[in-house]
What we know:
The chain has helices at residues 28-35, 48-51, 61-64, 86-98, 112-117, 139-146, 189-202; strands spanning 9-11, 14-15, 53-54, 70-73, 104-109, 126-131, 151-156, 173-176, 206-207.
Amino acid sequence: MTNISWTEESWNPTTGCSRISEGCRNCYAEALSLRHKWSPAEWTAQNAGRNIVLHPDRLDIPRRRKKCTKYFVNSMSDLFHELVPDSFIAEVFTVMADLRHRHTFQILTKRAERMAAWPGPWTLNIWAGVSVENRRSLYRLDYLRQSQAEHLWVSFEPLLEDLGLIDLDYINWVVAGGESGPHRRPFDHAWARLIRDQCKEQRIPFYF
């Protein structure tokens, strides 16, 4: 089960990560991991080797579920983190491709460069997505469009500023929202409305 409203289940073949941008400052996954002692240390680059864990025992979880399900891949990590080996990412993709007629898999990353270069197989049930939190991170959209995936999506979460006019060419789905938690930063609904209006003009489904 998951409390993330835009998906149905989360699947975490890897856990742990390291912060790389402003969107990571108040990461819910880091807070949960530290609170429950799933990670031994703060999610800094220096601690990544200790925090990032591969879970090969979890690879078969989607295979055991018969009901067609929408999975968020790695709600507690980033599949394309630089310390996750190519060989393990390939195993994850094998599972997703094998289940192309049963499940949908939503990948979300801030390591857009690595995802853009990943050869797949990008079957139709594997969605490639990037997080964008501010104008500085809009470059991830360009890498997203370089992906071989058929279905491209963007999560503007946590949205930290007005992004102005955005190039949404070839984007199939958009999610937007503010930051949560006790240290959440200010959020103006007008920022999300501007994204919503652009999606409406381009007939892109929008979820807030």
